[in-house]
Amino acid sequence: MKQTNEQITALAHHDSLTGLPNRILFYDRLNQAITRALRDKESIAVLYLDLDGFKHINDTLGHDAGDALLRETAKRIMACVRESDTVARIGGDEFTMILSNARTTNSKDRVAKKIVDAIAHPFMINGKNCTVSASIGISLYPDHGETAEQLVKIADAAMYLAKHSGKNCYCYTKPPSGCTSIF
Predict the structure, then answer these.
(1) Pick the CATH number of 11-181 from 3.30.70.270, 3.40.50.880, 3.50.50.60, 3.10.450.50
(2) What is the pLDDT of residue 183?
(3) What is the pTM of this model?
């Protein structure tokens, strides 16, 4: 019975495709991170990532190839963050990250650049090279918002700014402003 309950809890809080936390667990962890950051007077970065070109691969190579691409994307993102950070798949080809104790701009930028670079390398899916890129938006606690919802909304808006700025880059919507293109 205990094992069954643990399995049900795991299924309710994790994405079945990638094994990453899902939207529910992401928001729980973000709220906990905000509470800790407030207490310890720390900063948090929320990154919102959308894959550029995913729909084309999913449509031309099929859903199995799309699923394989999402699983590999999750692995690449996980390799770019610390073990203490959270990476979640919140739906489709959208991923979010919580970078705790993100004091310096360089640390957030370094992680975002590392992720953009990692995603830009071709994926080998079903024997075919597939290329996608990542558009990432970044919001900061407490600078850009004080609630999980505010931080995600601002990071999402920054991600759309990255998409409209040519994709394959990361952006902030508020200072530090602008987009950083990765070529």
Answers:
(1) 3.30.70.270
(2) 40
(3) 0.90
